[in-house]
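Now for a chain:

_____
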Amino acid sequence: MSALPHPPQIDPQAVELVVMRRRHLRQVLRIESQVYPRPWSAALFLQEMSRKTDRAYLVARYDAQVIGYGGVMIAPPEAHITTIAVDPGYHRNHIGTKLMLGLIDSATNRGCRSVSLEVRKSNLGAQKMYEAFGFRPVGVRRGYYVETGEDAIVMWVEGVDLPKYGEVLDRHRATITHVGGGDAGAS
């Protein structure tokens, strides 16, 4: 799915990350249906959200509206980002970057040292953002997205618990503090 031709410019500092709750689901599902050809169901989100010991799900809220969300599965020393999406109307506002920071912080706060994810082979914008977070391609899952048969690129970053990686996160935090451009907006 594509973003609107002229997405509104917002200050990412005005966007808050909060734990995903049941009350956010209607707006999460709206975004989910916009960005994924095979959206997750409410039941799947509820199941994931109920796993508080090994999952973390966040929503990005702006002006009382959910404009993005993401989740991470936590199994120290590894974590896996299960989903991340930004409302196409808010791409290029560093919302994906802010969500990635929150998800990686959630993982490292629970003892994770590496993070993985899958991304569509065609989603070059998201791959670029993940590379900026130090993720590198480590494999391909052929036909992973069954609705389209598209391959998934498996990306991985190690050492997220190390001070050197903290510098990477600090650079991203500085970017969203001093807004100028935009990110690719994960989808």
About this structure: Helices lie at 25-35, 42-50, 95-109, 124-132, 163-177. The first strand starts at residue 16 and ends at 19. The longest helix spans residues 95-109. DSSP finds five helices and seven strands in the chain.
